Amino acid sequence: MTGATNRRDLLAADRAARRLAQTEFTAPLVLEAGAGTGKTTTLVARVLAWALSAGWETARREVAEREPERASELDRIAAAVLEGIVAITFTEAAAAEMESRVAEALSRAAAGEASEIVGFEARGIDSDDGVGLEERAHALLAALDHLTVRTIHAYCLSLLKRYPLEAGLHPDLVVDADGAILEELVGEVVEAGLRTAYTRDDDGPLIRLARYRIGPRRIAQTLRLLAERGVVSSQLDQDPFGPERVAELLDRLRAPLDRFHVLLGDRLDGLPPKQIAPKVARAVVATLDLCARLDEAAELSLRTIVDLSDSLADLWPKNRLTRLGSWSKGRFTGAEEKALAGLDGLGEAAGGLRAALQQFQRLDPLLLDPARRALAGLLAQVEREMRARGVITFNGLLLEARRLLAEERSVRRRERGQLRQLLVDEFQDTDQGQCDLVRLLALSGSPSDRPGLFVVGDPKQSIYGWRNADLDAYEQFLQAVVEAGGERHSLVENFRSAAPILTEVDRSIAPVMTPIAGLQPGYERLVPCAALVDDPGFDRAERAPIEFWVSWARADGTAAPCEEKTHVDRAARLEAEAIARDIFELRHETAAEWSDFAVLLRSGGRLDTFLAAFRDAGVPFAVARDKSYFQRREIIEAAALVRAVVNPVDHLALLTFLRSPAVGLPDAAIIPLWQRQYPDLLSGHDRPSKALLGKLRKLVREVVGELPADIPGLDAIKGWDKSLLAGTETLLRLRESFALDPTDRFIEHVRSWLLLEATEAARYLGSFRVANLERFLRNLETALDRSGGDIQSVLRSLRRGVAEAREAEEAVPKEAALDAVQFLTIHAAKGLEFKHVYL
Fold first, then answer.
1. Mind listing the pLDDT tens digit for each residue in 169-192?
2. Can you give the pTM of this predicted structure?
3. What is the mean pLDDT of residues 606-612?
4. 269-272: which pairs have CB atoms within 8 A and are 24 or more residues apart?
5. Could you give the 3-state DSSP secondary structure of residue 332?
6. Helix ranges (DSSP H) in 408-513
């Protein structure tokens, strides 16, 4: 088959699938939409086609039956149409975009331009009621607030709030968005639990954990992680070392052993017995014999797993596991090459056996048992407290909504009765729980009671594994769709990328994207749309549509690489500088906007290197999320100031503030001041007084007189004592303002009394520092207002942000905010479009 014929066939199947999306509203339909194939347009076209045709007629009949007096009211019919549509998206931004696109499509339909909407077909629209397409569109547009477009979490929250009694939850349910409430509650529960455990005489699980040197902090971290991930205490009540569970563990180990043993056969018989490969083979046989002996034991229990773990540590030292890893990657020694190379399936078998053995070696059953028992009780207490306070985590929303629909038949029936069309976007990024939710709503029960189901996803774009996205669950769900009489089709026409881009994707991705059940889908070709099929891509300013760069340190200033390998840090700096320079040149050579450019990173590990290069090059940038925000010097110092104001005994925060540019305390003066109890003098005061300021002046004069005159650099900061006293007095005034003034007034005093922004503006990259400070103070004002008087929670958040380098959005100067190069991880860039991309 020629390329042109293949392209025609692919496009014909693509267009048939798009037509089906606008005409089939009863049977479940799944479209696997490749990147850039216009899935949002297809979703919007389906909403439009349903609302203007079959949905309108369905709503007209239902209104006539329920409210005959309103049967001819277009606004009531339009509201009924939209109330029956629920669209679930992956992000709030996607939800907002879909709502906007539906509104735009209805506006064009009302203006008689429905046929101009890409993919929309006006056929099949019945006007038996005498109301034309434009009139229907006008009415739908006016009733658009009845349309439900939400993230899965927002939908679950609305569901639980509609049925709080059935769900057994507080009617005023609050979502713990940032985990602050959970963290505080976990701290309280752990503290109370340890206080009780440490005062008792029995050898409880918390005492046993203490013997492993596992203390309050690690217990609290683990407990918080379990609660955030949606693990419930009842799951921890199950003994992982009961006879049935131990038998399962043995089977899980034996399966890859058997496979590897059968595959290997006698391939290694000719190798010297002292070589590592025969030792691996003997270890496989010995491990199989061990599993057989354990099977014959009178009872399978915790002791079985302990004995097995000890034996595996002896049978499988690190060098044997390393050899399995080498074989899994097709790497062999000279002797092994002859015996093993070309053995079909060896790599997969070796990798599977290595993973199973490593799992057992990481298992510490003697620790797991007390940890499970201790955490089960603590987690149960956290669950009771969260429920009593009406607080729920994001994962809790999904778990409770699924439980509600699964256990409450009347709720499930009512929800189905209100739904006419359920649309789900980015379905490949769902987990098993989310699949269950959609299945309960749209695939269970009798076909006549189910809403129409339209699912859009692309398994090739499943990238959120750490959020529990499960490709196996996706495949199982699609199988359930087919079993329910549904269909599965693909969209392959790409409206985003020029032909050279798609050709390169074919060349580089197709050979390696082979299907692996439950882990990786097969590759599916994308074809350019008619407008882009002859597009050469960007080829101006002596650039090619696709370029591959190699970063190396040049030898003697020439283009030749050094003989020695370029170190990874040096390579990163070279790459960052080259990209910044290239963007700067392209911006001026092609009159592009800064916002036309994006730099995509695998992770944020080397982000600082790139940002430094862009600052030096004068290229404005915007960073979506960055762990370095809370590591910025201006943020550390501003956070320390706030802590020193709110908590007078936080001497570390006081020291950080005094050493900041706002005060400028020299290091040579720190020890003399602390020896004279300078911080203690400040700890007991929340406002300035003449007596206190007099004591401080005297103390500072003593320190000035005591310091040697020959301290390097001290001459350059003459007057530091006056700055110290002024800064200290301002700190005391801020404590008084914090106690007496409204939040906005206090924040304004922080800005004006210390001139933080003016000080930072005078430093290197001052505009970026000022932007960060503005964001910090704005967020601080919001946090203080929301705290409800709980200042400690605000302090904990500040300390945690600095200590853990939490992710936050780095600010950019106002002049760069609207037009800046975007820095994103590859994951965060999903679905976005840019003219120039550096990967």
1. 988 888 887 777 888 889 889 988
2. 0.72
3. 86
4. 270/339, 271/335, 271/336, 271/339, 272/335
5. coil
6. 409-418, 432-442, 471-483, 499-509
